[in-house]
Amino acid sequence: MRVGIIGLQHESNTFFNTPTTYEDFKNTLYMRGEAARESAKSQHELAGFFEGCAREGLEAVPIFMATATPGGAVTAEALESMLAIVFEELD
After folding, report:
1. How far is the C-alpha of 9 from the C-alpha of 67, rounded, in Å?
2. Is 80 strand, coil or helix?
């Protein structure tokens, strides 16, 4: 069985007036496909998903990973852009 691995991380703070944009994610950590697997070879949460899948005999398929530094709420445009990439990778 194949399992798609997607990571999208952000710490939103409503007291921060500047919204978090798509560019903020692209400028912090933004990986597609196998590059997402490579970024998870440490103490990262995604590494646990890859390890768990391997232990259970599942094929982990890296799809997308993005992180932005803590800031204001994520814009709808940023979320929609990243979801479009996820669906494109799933095709």
Report:
1. 5
2. helix
Q: How wide is the angle at C-alpha 72 spanned by C-alphas 90 and 50, nearest 5°?
A: 35
Q: Is the pTM of this model over 0.70?
A: yes
Q: Digits of tens for pLDDT over the chain (91 positions)? A: 999 999 999 999 888 999 999 999 999 989 998 888 876 666 678 888 888 999 999 999 999 999 999 999 999 999 999 999 999 988 7
Asked whether 60 and 53 are in contact (CB, 8 A), the reply is yes
With CA atoms as reference, report the closest residue to 21 among 86, 72, 90, 83: 72
